[in-house]
């Protein structure tokens, strides 16, 4: 992931933190799982 993409993800994450409700919570969970899976794959390689 490029630095620009990382910054965009962080910006969107910070915007998402302002949103309440089950849909926002589900999105946060999915984002965290995505990064968790990438981290696991990177460590396994």
TrEMBL record:
It comes from the Bacteria. This is Uncharacterized protein. It comes from Bradyrhizobium huanghuaihaiense. The lineage of its organism: Bacteria, Pseudomonadati, Pseudomonadota, Alphaproteobacteria, Hyphomicrobiales.
